[in-house]
Design brief:
single chain; alpha/beta; Rossmann fold; three-stranded antiparallel beta sheet; globular
Length: about 375
Amino acid sequence: MRALPRAATPLLGFGRLLRRYGFAIAPEQVSGFMQAVTLLGPRSMADIREAALATLAPPPDRRDEFEAHFQNHFYGNTSAVVEGDADEETRIKDDGGASQEQIEVISQQEGGELSSGAEQLSTRDFQRDDDGLAAFRRKLASALPARRSFRTVRTHSRGKLDLRRSLREIVSADGDVPSPLLRRRQTVPRKLLILIDVSGSMKLHTADYLKLAHAAVQGADRAEIFTFGTRLTRITSALRIRDRDQALARAAAQVDDWDGGTRMGPTLLAFLSVPRFSAFSRGAAIVILSDALERGDHAELETAMRRLSARAFRLSLATPLAGDPRFRPATAALRAILPDLDDLVDGSSLAGLTDFILSLARPAPAAATIWKGVS
């Protein structure tokens, strides 16, 4: 891959700076920013500023903060007051350019029984064991829900007449009428999107969830994996490495918010705010692995789940809390999002989760219908 020109480094760094402070900046916007600067010359810093405003599109309510970051980054004006704290905003991390640095465990706290909104940054280490995911990986591609594609393939029966190619055959055969050529629309598996809660309250389960995610990426061509806690991180590319130890080590290096607090609503809204990420959810089977213990106001969570439900083919929440026979969706957050869920299932074991994911193509009653009758 050709290295970027030296002059492009500050432009790329400005996009990364905005992402670090919670601005929803897609990689395509950063690329567009650099292309706009190239087209403009630029003749002055005013041209760079106008290109940044046009392509990075800061929201009106954060325009002053955007200006302060621009002054700080390009002029070194550290006296500019930047409203808001990066730690208080949901940070989005894509895995397109992950480093290969060695994994170091810097936090080994036990517990995780309580969920909070406080951010705590740490890394994780994963050990290999025999968990029986090989069979799940082999079955997944054929078990996922399918949809009819607009692309067509040739077929010998039960298709529509391929008039263009049939006429071409007639011309090449000097007017003889051969057997008509038929085509039918392809049937392709739907996308599988898995969102994994890595907060402290899920600490006992995240290792298994990451192993499941690696098997899903290896078994399905269109699987996408994200982690969320106080930040949002895409780890799909790391999990495409065939060797599981190497893949999980790479993923662990990319995720910064292991075993910290929970901001489920804001992180899901951040996911939806990036067009490229939001496109992953359209028509997909979405599985959220979380206890859904949202602290404080759950309005953002409710909004995010409603928008995900409208985009998804099927929206499922797998919570380890449902492994307890006494579990009921009694919290305010769970009651609010229950109508938007197609499934609310037990996420406490790998065996149960793999069976559930392999059954996504089969119809089932909506979660609200099932849990309505449970007292």
